[in-house]
Fold this protein.
Amino acid sequence: MFRLTTLRKAFEDEALVHVVLNGASGWFKVSQCLWSTATQIRGMIALNDYYDTLKGFFVNFLGVKTLNLQMVFNKLKEQGAGQSSIEKVKETIWVLNSLLQSEKEHPSPKAILESSVFPVRYPDGSVGLRTSATAFAIADRKHLYDSFSNQAKFLDFSTNDILRLEHFFKWAGLENRYLSRSVKEISTLRGDPDRLISHPDRDVSRKAHGLLR
């Protein structure tokens, strides 16, 4: 193990990896390479696109880095400061969400919350990347979204996507923006808005014993 670690250190700054990139042939240092099937990291060459069957050699022997949470965190932060498309930012959020589940140590979300990485849909249908300072809601209930979509700003993910991105929202501390937590649903008798179903003389829980006998 010690010998392999020493070899990896020696390999790190050697141009040992040959890649044909954008039609041009070149040699790259191990430290410039990455093994990632999920996303591209600026300034690094994803070797799996060229040597998909040789992961063991590049990762275990040469010490090529695999994609990790910090890399994706940094990429999302950079996208928020640049001119990335909404779809590219969404892709990175999905990868970040996945790594938040698999890695135990998480960075502070502060830098992400302050970056323009949240795709916000406005009532007029337009979508733009905004920071968390924008007052947007998260549509975790479809029937509620259908009722308020033309009145409020929403994060531009479908209801099903919202459920799958739970780890991202929990890490970012945005759970209080779930629409289900912002709206109070009240049922009334049709034609009589003052007669709530929850009125004491119509409280089903009080009659449950009789109904279930």
